[in-house]
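Run log, item B.
One chain of 256 residues. Sequence copied directly from the ordering sheet:
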Amino acid sequence: MKKTALILSLSSILLLSASVAGWCADTVSLHGATTTQKSVIDPGKEGLAKATGVKLEIVGSTTGAGLEDLINGKCDLAMAAEALPDAIANLKAVSTAVVVPDNLKEFVVGKSKLVVIVNKENPVAKVSSEQLQGLLTGKIANWKDAGGADKAVVVVAAPIGTATRKIIQKQIMGGAEFAPGTIDSETPAKQVEYLDINPEGIAVVADALLASSAKKGSVKIIDAPEISFQLTLVSKGEPAGNVKKVIDYYTASAKK
């Protein structure tokens, strides 16, 4: 009886191991930009599973963190919210110890738009390119100089090191630094939360991030110059197997 029980137990373990291995074989891990995650990956993951049987393990962080994880073999694909050359340059600037291989490949899976938001109590409804630059850099330090109330401007910036922050500085601010006293958010989602408690605040966020925020009702989008950028997946080497299925699914969806 004991020998039979042992054989059954070993058989159960082998079946369980095979089941786990099979599940893992159909799982692809993605690390990186939450903007790409919220805009493209999350909305499409159920469709991906139905179409291919592939499930996703997603860790939202930043473009740089995702790229570093990919290089170090901690994930199958990196999610990026900027073009690969820019992402590599930014990663090298902050992580000099990282050796970037020459076989990284990017695949465009969508485009994201940044929107300018303020607290819903703020009377300002529109800003020009010049005004937006002034508000973010501190050249305009009081809302009255942008058509608002006589109150000090509070800039709520994207987290330091994120692609979104760099895009804002490049496309809007002419490479300048953010205003003195700027609140540097811990996460992109925190920007909306900070505006909820700062009536004088202003922030620039991805439209998809705002749509998924629990605090979106406390802020409003104001009319401002459009800012857009590409969203990509990055592989290490030529993609194959389930990794290729994921890339093919999302690149095809981006073309629709």
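Observations after the first pass:
- The chain has two domains: 26-111+232-255, 112-230.
- Strands lie at 27-33, 55-61, 77-80, 104-119, 154-157, 183-184, 201-206, 219-236.
Flagged for discussion on Thursday.
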